[in-house]
Amino acid sequence: MTAAVTTGAGMSTLTARRFLRHRLAVVSACGLALMALAAMAAPLAAALIGADAETVDLFNRFQPPSWQHPLGTDEIGRDVFVRLLYGGRISLFVGLTAALAAAVLGTVIGLFAGYFGGRLDAFLMRFTDGVISLPLLPLLIVLAALDLDKLGLPEALVGSENISLYRIVAIVALVGWTTVARLVRGTALALRERDFVLAAEAQGATAWRIMSAHILPNLASPIIVATTLSVGNVILLESVLSFLGLGIQPPIPSWGNLLTNAQELIWDAPALAFYPGVMIFLTVIAFNFLGDGLQDALDPRATEGKVTQ
Predict the structure, then answer these.
(1) Stated pTM of the model
(2) How many CB atoms lie within 10 A of CB 81?
(3) What's the pLDDT tens digit per position in 45-67?
(4) If both were cysteines, with which of 88, 181, 250, 272 could 110 make a disulfide (CB 3.0 to 4.6 Å apart)?
């Protein structure tokens, strides 16, 4: 027992040391933490500067940055800084929630395919290949344009102010699980032949027990890495759909629809497009660097003398 605890602590220390040596990943993690804190503090920031994300003031259109409006105002006098913070809340929420939902769905499909194998594996993997072969952006546009009134959903849900938010999360989760499923399936295929799994089967453990207690914990590394890398892609997809008018709908601000509102004002007020565009760029690249760092840190084949970035 003591030896197992010591070994686990040693592995955790080694993993942390590998991650900390990946400087870009550490900087990215700190930057993402600051973005998340700033987004969560959006109501506090609005109260401190006396601004509101939805208050229209036509007498203060296109105001330059000032103490009252740190990033100026937009075409109808709304505070750009506060709207950027609220937009970050939505974009980060969509990215994290959709990526986690897709990871859960992909883990279940990949785990069942890898452990049971046979016809179930063949069916699930051919289904996965079919989803991968679909043109992603046109499919997302079609799904985002569906009339929810004709799908038999409750009227209270269809009429909700947040329905566009729920729709984007559901759509991305339904098409974004394939990478995790293939990674989990490949690892599960190898793990089911390991001695500890065969020993559990010999002792009469159920398939559910083996998958949940013996195989799933060993899948944590590829799942975490794949999920982290997918968050940036989800934020890009949400931004593209919102830019096309099929994503998060006003009055809910997101970085994508902030770009949409600014496209007709790009020559008169380029800063309105610059700020959300930079935030999307920084967030996506930070999640990619974070995923690379986690992959290096969690890779059991990594060596202590590996050259890091």
Answers:
(1) 0.83
(2) 21
(3) 888 888 877 878 888 888 888 88
(4) 181
